Guanylate cyclase domain-containing protein (Rhizobium redzepovicii), 273 residues
Amino acid sequence: MTVEKPPRSGPSPEEQVRIYARRQRERYRFDSSKIARAENVYVAWIDLMGAGHLMSVSLEKPANALVRLHMAVEHAIAKKTSIETLPINDGVFILSQHKSDIEQVVRSVMIDLSSIFISTPDPQNKVLLRGGIAFGPVYRGEAIAAGLAAGKREKHKEALSRVAFGPAIIQAYREEGAAPPYGIAVHESARSFAPPATTPFLMTHWLWWLTHPDLEHPDGAPPLTVLKEVLCGDLIKHFAWLRSTLLLHGLPAEKLTQWEQMAQQYFRLRAPS
């Protein structure tokens, strides 16, 4: 005698999965074809060097460095409404359509943090940093939100305001690796292109200590050419200490030699005539 199976009363387990998956896809629907056109902006990336190693051996030292970096950026962008920042743990992206704003902010950060480096007496508490600058199209929060249905834009507005992506973001991030400690490398995009009526950067590295009529000199700061000479001398001493204690830093000797050579060359550079 054959026993008939009762008719199925609902979707199979696999069908339930697929129904759920389609529902989730609809919930997160995003149409990239509706994104507003990207704007050409300058992007600077400033990064603490060796932060990953610092975090693996200590909490206090990287905490001091991280907080000071973000405080310095916050101070530099005060009252500058054209500046947007994207903090990412041990670094920060700085975005602006205006070259002079990027220069002013990066210069302010370098002045403040190099001063902290100089004034820190214990070498094991000194921290290195460097940065990169690029120029090109970047999609930002409002433009990205255009890809959402109208009813979802307000809900996700705050989250998307912290998102930016585009070639210049990656270029600035990668170019940082070409900079010496306390130096700024300039990607070819920022040396080849610029907004109308402005000029691109002229060198592969930006000399943040040079006098420029469009850049403010911080109140109470010494001449920046003197500051950079003291900084360079202290960096050379710090490299000597690092070399004598390499075991503690997870740093290959050849990398340290490269940093030292790059710093000596960078801080001797002059503006193109």
Summary: The first helix runs from residue 13 to 27.
